[in-house]
Amino acid sequence: MRVRTRSNKKIVYACRYQVVWCPKYRRPVLVGDVRRRLIEMLHTEADERHAEVIALDVLPDHVELVIDADPQFGIHRLVKRLKAQSSHHLRREFPQLRSRLPTLWTHSYFVATVGGAGPAVVGRYIAAQRHT
Fold this sequence. Notes:
Blueprint (H helix, E strand, L loop, with lengths): L5 E2 L4 E2 L2 E6 L10 H17 L3 E8 L2 E7 L6 H19 L1 H6 L9 E4 L5 H11 L3
Antiparallel strand pairs: 1-2, 3-5, 3-6, 4-5
Helix pairs in contact: 1-2
């Protein structure tokens, strides 16, 4: 199986990461309109950072994301940006998030490289997480 590569001015890369993060206190607040808006924001922010969302699922108490990101920008900077922007906008648009949580996200997150797994394999894995 051939992994699709991307490039910028200096490098050619295929860097896929699985990232998982949770709301503060793992509260199940990512539902309904909040969930829909978060999905939209994550796609928009990823596009602005020249990253590609391979798979995304937002469950009530956590976000699971597989993203292809430029290694020169750095996955840590990308995750920080995704969490910061989404927290800022969601808390402004949905006042109930401000009253229940001091901040939307925990400071921590999980990240792992996906390796050579194709989009179909990764997509099935993310979809299966909803049923476990």
